[in-house]
Model the fold of this input.
Amino acid sequence: MNLYYKLDEKIMKGVNAGVQAWNWTTGKTKGDLAFLLEISGNALFSFSLSLRFGYDKAIVSIPFAIAGCVISWYSNQDDDKREERALRRGCLDSIIQDRKDTIYKLGSPASAVIGTGLIVGSYYKNIEESSIPFGSGFFMWGMGLYVRRADYLPPRKNVLSRTVDKVKEWAKEFGSEPVTSPAPDYSYSTRNLEGQLI
Done:
């Protein structure tokens, strides 16, 4: 196994842990996280074009950014639906696995490396100011593709809702159990009608 596959395996282990934390905390799927990363990348691309060409000329990039967001949204939703259906059947979706092994596997490291190179290069060399958000956009897209390759986890309640449900359950259990403790000697419940101790 060469160095690339070992590195990719380590990165995916970290990405899977991040997706599990995202799902546990927000209750949302990896498709939602990937979309968030990809839409952030689109916003950074548009911002870098406005820095490079000026705001009046960069307005041309807005329709492309919106189109990229729409395509990303539908693509992530399609992936989620296919993976959820396959999970219910107890198998893997062959189309999603092909995408993970080709498009996502090739695009994620390339985008992340290009983005990192642009960001780091702008600090060490006299590169234009617009390369930092442009590189950040590439990096975000790469991370979004890494997230798409992660294991699928179904949607569930977020951590706050689950906590509230658990507290309600505990309160219900605690309230249903009678409190039993011996009554003290001076209590009326330990004396008969004449006031003598029982």
Remarks:
- Residues 3-158 form one domain.
